[in-house]
Design a protein that fits this description.
elongated, 5 helices, alpha+beta, four-stranded antiparallel β-sheet, five-stranded mixed β-sheet
């Protein structure tokens, strides 16, 4: 019972999104940012600060502050570039520590120094590193292809691709023939126009 009471006493007042895992999606050759939303559902102001077990590896903005009743704050967690090893599991963790804000706040540091242990609430999150899978890469390539080709290949297999090429060839031939026919008509009309002008000149 005592353990349950202790848990209840320190229950986090803020609602975290995501609640337990901070996911970072590679490649990790550049800064990778993930967002953590902190929502204050209470009717009191709440002070928060964000801590990590690997402070040199992350940049956190904002890393502390005050959240008004019913308000939310988006915390950006930026993972610095590093050489990713898929066999190495991340042991990095974050902690969001909170306490109800006193009536008159002038010094945030003083708030944390003066806060009693039973007034502090905390939530722990673990970091998860994910590399894009081969399927993700293929999907990205497929998404960049023209939709009609994707649709025909999905519905009818590889054959319609060849069929669509032959259709395109037929269309091209039709256009070329149409151009030739129009050119011939223009030449014919030009000759007729020249002939009419000659007849008109002779008549005068």
């Amino acid at each position: 019972m005592a353990a349950a009471g202790a848990l209840a006493k320190h229950e986090q007042i803020l609602v975290l999104d995501p609640p337990t895992d901070l996911k970072f999606k590679g490649p990790f050759t550049d800064v990778v940012t993930t967002n953590l939303k902190l929502r204050n559902p209470s009717d009191r102001k709440v002070c928060f600060k964000v801590k990590t077990t690997a402070p040199r590896r992350y940049c956190v903005r904002p890393n502390s502050g005050i959240i008004d009743p019913g308000s939310s704050v988006i915390v950006s967690v930026m993972l610095q570039p590093f050489d990713y090893d898929p066999n190495e599991k991340s042991k990095h963790k974050f902690m969001v520590q909170t306490t109800y804000a006193p009536p008159n706040i002038s010094d945030m540091e003083a708030v944390w120094k003066e806060a009693k242990p039973d007034e502090l609430m905390d939530s722990k999150l673990r970091c998860v590193f994910e590399m894009p899978s081969e399927n993700d890469k293929l999907n990205d390539i497929d998404a960049s292809k023209p939709a009609p080709v994707l649709n025909t290949s999905k519905q009818d297999g590889p054959m319609p691709k060849a069929h669509s090429v032959s259709l395109n060839d037929t269309e091209t031939r039709k256009l070329v023939e149409e151009c030739k026919r129009l050119q011939a008509e223009i030449m014919k009309l030009t000759d007729e126009n020249r002939h009419l002008r000659q007849v008109f000149k002779n008549a005068i």
